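Lest this sound abstract, we think one record worth quoting, the chain in one-letter code, the fold tokenised, each line plainly labelled:

>
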Amino acid sequence: MAHTLLVVTGANSIALADSTAHPTGFWAEELVELHRGLVSAGHDVDLATPGGVHPVVDPGSLVGEHAEDLKAYLASIDGFLARPRALADIRSGQYDAIILPGGHGPMVDLAFDAYLGRLLIDAIDRDAVVGVLCHGPAGLLSAVRQDGSLAFAGRRLAVFTDDEERQGGLGDASPYLVESRLRALGVLVESGKPWSVTVVTDGSLVSGQNPQSSIATARALVEVLSGR
């Protein structure tokens, strides 16, 4: 059994390009399927947020045909969500895997969180598992080494693409494009067609492109963890 840490945004809004606030949080399907997949495989899952704040769900992620299932699952883990650890309190080397679901929230806080950056650099340097999904890779932007380089430069991953952001995300109102920013810092982004199920595994780094890839990303994480 692996000891895993689900790192979730604590943001509940994002400042758009015109400085107006747009509600956000974690994306329900992504957190649910990652948590469900890890727990079903017998892994231990802890939760952490910046400052230990109670994470909120992006209201836009609770619509559609699976909304009731997502709401029911979130209700069943309400106690888990209500008691996150603070990222600042987590020691390096404490977890076998660090996993970041998306929603636009990670663009607001996780991308700039020095405590998360420290944990991610430690994880990649000791070849621990790192999992990111959709906008979750924004959190990788925090992993800047002392020489100014991104710890994940040269690694292959999937991320919510610029095309998907324009087609079904915040579009031109987005404060920045996660795919473009990661590419500019040397990350090797491997994109599938918009809204396709796309998962990239690069050694201990597992990534999914969008909400449609949630279940497949959870399965890939479980597979990588099973080989450890």
About this structure: The chain has one domain: 3-226.
